Amino acid sequence: MQHLNDEELIAHHYRDADASDHLQACSECNEQYQTLRRVLTLVDTLPVPERDPGYSERVWNRVRWRLERRRERRWRWMASVAAILAIAFVTAQWWRTQPAAGGRQTAEIANRQPATINNPTTQQPTNNVLVFVVTDHLDAAERMLAEVANADPKKRLEIGVEQRRAEDLVTANRIYRQTATQRGDARIAALLSDIEPILVELSHAGKELSPEELSSMQKRIDSKNLLFKVRVMSRSEEPVPVSRVNSL
Amino acid sequence: MEMTDVAAVSRTRDGDAEAFRLLVERHSRAIFRVAWRMTGNEHDADDVVQETFLRAYRQIDGFEERANFSTWLHRIAINCSLDLLRSRSRHDKQYGGDPEVVELRSDAPEPDRMAISAELQQHVAAAMQRLSENERTAFVLRHFEGMPVEEIGKTLGIQVNAAKHTIFRAVRKLRDSLEPFVRKTPCNT
What we know:
The complex is a heterodimer. Chain A is an all-alpha fold. Chain A has helices at residues 6-13, 20-25, 27-44, 55-97, 101-112, 114-118, 120-149, 160-183, 186-204, 211-223, 226-236, and strands at 157-158, 208-209. In chain A, helix 4 (55-97) runs parallel beside helix 8 (160-183), helix 7 (120-149) runs antiparallel to helix 11 (226-236) and helix 8 packs antiparallel against helix 9 (186-204). In chain B, helix 2 packs across helix 4 and helix 2 (17-39) crosses helix 6 (133-144).
């Protein structure tokens, strides 16, 4: 009788092959197999280091922290792009209104062809750019307002990360408000004027809001129906997908 | 009623971070076990656990609800471990190995570790350390994770036959190192 080799014994152990009949009939191979089985059982007994009861919590905290850092970096990048777009837009508007050669030329053309310039279909693309950029901004502002509005007014609210975000939002909000005013979009300008004081207050707050500060801010958000207005405005235009990460 | 993994995944996709926290709480220890067996080092295993959940969060849209979340997560952990082992291997080739890095044992005196003697544990740990990186990975995947040989081949980027032989070599090495001890301990039969 030909004996089983190592590979056949190992394959049998992991059920990749069935050598049961041979092992029943051949005591020598069976002994080899039992030795192999004992070795692998011994390997199984090597204990894995235990983790303490707070392990999962620590893992979660580290994961959350890394996700927040990533979100912050991404948000800063988006804010920078949005700010550059807005600045470019404002600069272009300013250039058009200057009495320099190019500006005069544009003004003359505008005077000669008022119907074309004032035609709403020709203004739409620039309005769409503004609306698209503002929608993104409003999404970010909505998340911040929602965090404040939904917090427990009896407890202190930690806003360390949000405070830095609020600073960026204030800067962007001012640029968008001015642009909207210049573009004559009173609806967006009014809403941005309404949310700006709240963002300013959050950007100047410390690392946390006291229950009194929180309650006062919630009342102001509520009295002006700000959250609702922001939601309506950002949903009524081209929606911009909000990343899951931002909900952390 | 306790939330299922699939429900927690669905809520995570909707932006509920607490649901993902539940998944971390539920699976972090199991992921640590596979990471420790793959890397042979507690610190590396902790890093792998963290990286696994980060990748899982980012790739959660890719999880198919028909699949088992734990299996999916284990697969990510295995890939993270392999990435770590490969980067360490590259680093070792460049700068020379750190003898303290590979340490498949824990110094913490846990009660269940007393089941086999400290001396025997050291022999088992030493036998595992003698396996090459590929051998240990293939062995852990086949022996502890129950992964089919074909899948091990795919995971390691090698042919099925090569994967099979890597497992055989690992088992043979372990048997050669540990056979004297199992002959001495009849209670293991």
